[in-house]
Amino acid sequence: MNSKEKERIKKKLLKEKDEILKKLSEFRNEGKEIEPGIAQDMVDKAESSYTKEFLFELSDTERKLLIQIDNALKKIERDDFGICEMCQKEISIKRLSAVPWTPYCIKCQEKQEKKISQ
Ligand SMILES: [Zn+2]
Questions:
Q1: pLDDT tens, position by position, 96-106
Q2: How far is the CA of 112 from the centre of ligand 1 (A)?
Q3: Where do the domains of the chain lie?
């Protein structure tokens, strides 16, 4: 990977990170607004707790993504970006362009997903 590609991926990572942080703060604001509705009414209560769970789940996923993005940024600084954490082989530039925060190459990712679904 040349430095131009690296720079492009770094920008993409930082942009993604920004968007998640923005989203997370929006979720937090919405959470505060949902709270009073819970005390008001049974129907509202059910709806609100569902929404709350949904938001929590979403933000949890985003938090995980945020960690992966931070790891990828650290790897760029250390100059070992683009190496699969499992097999130590280079991750294809095509994959990195699509999901620059991925720690695994496509083969290892598939192995992981199979493990989870079994
Ligand atoms: Zn691999």
A1: 999 999 999 99
A2: 10
A3: 3-117
Mean pLDDT lowest for which of 23-32, 43-52, 59-68, 82-91?
43-52
Handedness of CA 44, 49, 52, 53 (dihedral sign): negative
Separation CA 106–CA 94 (nearest Å): 10
Cα 54 to ligand 1 centroid, rounded to whole Å: 32
Return the CATH number of the domain spanning residue range 3-117: 1.20.120.910
CA–centroid distance, 101 to ligand 1, in Å, is 14
Residue 21 has pLDDT above 50, yes or no: yes
- State in Å, rounded, how far the first CA of the chain is from the last one: 35
Q: Which of 91, 88, 94 is nearest to 105 (CA)?
A: 91
